[in-house]
Design a protein that fits this description.
Family: Belongs to the zinc-containing alcohol dehydrogenase family.
Cofactor: Zn(2+)
GO biological process, one term: sorbitol catabolic process
Structural class: alpha/beta
CATH superfamily of the largest domain: Medium-chain alcohol dehydrogenases, catalytic domain
CATH topology of the largest domain: Quinone Oxidoreductase, Chain A, domain 1
Shape: globular
Organism: Musca domestica (House fly)
GO molecular function: L-iditol 2-dehydrogenase (NAD+) activity; zinc ion binding
Length: 358
């Protein structure tokens, strides 16, 4: 096995370094992966720019990256479902398995969750990475490594749509046409939603949403009044949405989500912004609008993989830029500034002669 384990390490605010790290030793229930594709998430950029997200603070050097796929290079003694050479998508959060949340099926709420590139745990933008084998999902031959990496954001969309109860004939409002808003759009379509409106501040993103199948788009301005926009939404859609999924984390869109949702409907909040926001709670209570939170995903990776493998969902359109791991700084600059209409920036981790850019 190669000795080269080039790794992207975040030391602190605006301090990302490429350095060699030891190749990890695996336990009986783990696999060693030769990492192939890692795409950049908004949270990765947030840690680079701010050094923290809420209570998660970068206090020591941390390997970045969590939207990833790799090839099995070594298998632990107790691993039965994977073999060397298998191509895998990596679900990046490994829970404790034994707490009430884990045993109750809500492992995403496990207080001992070890989640890639969330302090104090390392991520996987590195050439060799070890991971719990049961959180590695073997990819069918026709699913590319890039698609495998994008199962991570797609799983957020699956979880959000499941929390909202999206189904046949649903009228869905999605607030925000960033990567999470766009994957939520794709999943809502696959679940049978009949009308899907998506909003954003940037027309270019709305154009992509329209291309991906949004039935309605609405360009917003930062000073828009949520109550007024809610009327616009109903007017354009011809109905009030019964499911609203907020993917921005802004107070304005959270307020809009509640005002716009039909009485008796459900407003799901995916976007994480300020720790406290002002919301029209009495409006929601008086109209029995359910407000639900979303935290990552739980038992959603298999569904995300099935959607991609069956061709029901095409995530390839989201990948706009490609970089080698040696160009990590450039990749992050592209992602954080949205250069060239960037949606998903993909980093190819193995040396160029072995890259799989299918």
């Amino acid at each position: 096995m190669a000795k080269d384990n080039l790794t992207a390490v975040l030391y602190g605010i605006e301090d990302m370094r490429l350095e060699q790290r030891p190749i990890p030793e695996i336990s009986d229930n783990e696999v060693l992966l030769a990492m192939d594709c890692v795409s950049i998430c908004g949270s990765d950029v947030h840690y680079l720019v701010n050094g923290r997200i809420g209570d998660f603070i970068v206090t020591k050097p941390m390997i970045i990256g969590h939207e990833a796929a790799g090839v099995v290079a070594k298998v632990g003694a107790k691993v039965k479902h994977l073999k060397v050479g298998d191509r895998c998508a990596i679900e990046p959060g490994v829970p404790c398995y034994i707490c009430d949340f884990c045993k109750g099926g809500s492992y995403n709420l496990c207080p001992e969750m070890k989640f890639c590139a969330t302090p104090p745990y390392d991520g996987n933008l590195t050439r060799y990475y070890k991971h719990a084998a049961d959180f590695c999902f073997k990819l069918p031959d026709h699913v590319t490594m890039e698609e495998g990496a994008l199962l991570e954001p797609l799983s957020v969309g699956v979880h959000a749509c499941r929390r909202a109860g999206v189904g046949l004939g649903s009228n869905v409002l999605i607030l925000g046409a960033g990567p999470i808003g766009l994957v939520t759009l794709l999943v809502a379509q696959s679940m049978g939603a009949s009308k899907i409106m998506i909003t954003d501040l940037v027309q270019q993103r709305l154009d992509v949403a329209k291309e991906l199948g949004a039935t309605h788009t609405l360009l917003m301005k930062r000073d828009d009044i949520p109550e007024e926009v809610a009327k616009q939404v109903e007017s354009l859609m011809g109905v009030q949405p019964d499911k609203t999924i907020e993917c921005c984390g802004a107070e304005t869109t959270t307020r809009l989500g509640i005002f716009a949702t039909r009485s008796g409907g459900c407003c799901v909040i995916v976007g994480m912004g300020a720790p406290e926001v002002k919301v029209p709670l009495i409006n929601a209570l008086a109209r029995e609008v359910d407000i639900r939170g979303v935290f990552r995903y739980c038992n959603d990776y298999s569904a995300a993989l099935a959607l991609v493998a069956s061709g029901r969902v095409n995530v390839k359109r989201l990948v706009t830029h490609h970089f080698d791991i040696t160009e990590t700084d450039k990749a992050f600059e592209t992602a954080r500034k949205g250069l060239g209409g960037a949606i998903k920036v993909m980093i190819h981790v193995q040396p160029k002669d072995t890259n799989n850019k299918k």
